[in-house]
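Handout for the seminar on molecular recognition.
Each group receives one record of this type.
Step one: identify the two inputs.
Step two: read the structure output and locate the region that could contact 2'-deoxycytidine-5'-monophosphate.
Step three: write two sentences on what you found, then compare them with the reference statements printed after the record.
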Amino acid sequence: MEASEPKFSVAIDGPSGAGKSTLARAAAKELNFVYVDTGAIYRTAALYILRKGVEPGDSAAVAALLPEIGITMAYDGGGLQRMLLNGEDVTDLIRTQEISMTASAVSAYPAVRAFLLEMQRDMAKKYNVIMDGRDIGTVVLPDAAVKIFLTASSEARARRRWLELEQRGTPKDFDVLLRETRERDENDMNRAAAPLRPAEDAVVLDTTEINFQESLERIIEIIRERTGL
Ligand code: DC
C-alpha cells in the first residue's frame, strides 16, 4: 500500500471486555486493514511504571517516568501486533490483571494520554486502520470514516472474561471479575481526560445478546456501508 493513498480509519471504542479486540482483529483480517490495539500501548507504559515500582496513583512520579519509556509497535508475519518496550518484546507480559488495573489508573493522566497520542495518529496516517480503544472516535481519530461503540452489560463482559480464564486454566472468581470490570468502567468513564463515551456520530452496537459471528457480520456490514469497500 502506498503511503500517499487516502486512508480509511475505523474507530472501535467501548468498555473493557466488550470483545473489541477480537472483533476488530477479525474485521481487519477480512477487510485487509491494519489492526491497532491501543490498549496494548497503555499496557506497555503500565508495565514500565510497575517495574519501576512507582505508585500508579502518584501522577507526578508517573509523569516523570514518561521520557524513559520508548514504545514501538511491530507486526509479525501473521499480522499480529507486537509491543516493544525500549526494544524488549513485552507482548506476552502485558495481559495480567495487575497490568489491566494499572493501565486503567495511569491512562487517566493527561500527560500519559498526550505522550501516547501521536504514535496512534501516525499509524492512521500510514495505513487503513481499524483501531480499538476508549477515545479513538472522540479524540485520537475524530475524522474516522467509521465509528463503532461496542458495548455489553457488565455481567456479560465479566462472564466472557470468566470463561476465557477458565479455558486458559487460570480460573478466577466471577464476583471478583465483575467487581473489577465495574471498577475499570468507573475509571474509564469518569476521568476528566478523554473519558470513555460514544462519539456523537458513532454506531452503538450492544453485543450482550448476540454472539461473536453475528457481531462480526454487523461490524463488517457497517464498515462496508460507510466506506463503500
Ligand atoms: O483495551 P484494554 O483493556 O487493553 O486497555 C487497558 C486500559 O488502557 C483501559 O482500562 C483504559 C486504557 N485505555 C485508554 O484509556 N484509552 C485507549 N484508547 C485504550 C486503552
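Reference statements: Strands lie at 9-13, 34-37, 71-75, 81-85, 88-89, 129-133, 146-151, 203-206. The chain has a mean pLDDT of 94.
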